[in-house]
Amino acid sequence: MHPPLDRPHPDCQGAIDDLKECHLSFWNKYSGGCNDIKVRLDQCLKAEKKRLLDEMNQDLPQRKVKQEEIIKNAFGKNITFSEYLAKDKDYKEAMDQKRQGQ
């Protein structure tokens, strides 16, 4: 199953057009005559999605650090919640018990 093809997919427009053209033939559409084109389209859409995610997440570590700083400032604390949990004895014991299946 692929995403809706009516939205812009600039990397895959050629494969989308080929699939739509193939589907104009009733016989091809329902007998598997378009399967090769659909596989090519699926591969293209997968590559496009990976490229878009890589572009969106290229500065993710910096954004996470900035977000942690904002949270620290908002709550007036000197440490983040993750740092607090790392120092909390009760939390560590509960997590150890959970890992051991108790």
Q: How would you describe this structure to a colleague?
A:
The protein has 102 residues and is mainly alpha-helical. The chain folds into 2 domains: 10-56; 60-100, no CATH class. It has helices at residues 13-22, 26-31, 35-56, 60-75, 81-87, 89-100.
Quick tags:
2 domains; mainly alpha; elongated
Topology:
Layout: H1 13-22, H2 26-31, H3 35-56, H4 60-75, H5 81-87, H6 89-100
Strand content: under 5%
Task: Please work out how many helical segments DSSP would assign.
Answer: 6
Shape: elongated
Helix content: over 70%
In total, the number of domains comes to 2
User: Largest beta sheet, briefly?
Assistant: none
Distance between the termini: 42 Å
The mean pLDDT is: 87
Overall SS class: mainly alpha
Low-confidence stretches: none
Order of helices and strands: HHHHHH
- For the CA atoms, what is the radius of gyration? 25 Å
Q: How many strands appear in the DSSP assignment?
A: 0
What would a concise description of this structure say?
The protein contains 6 helices and no strands.
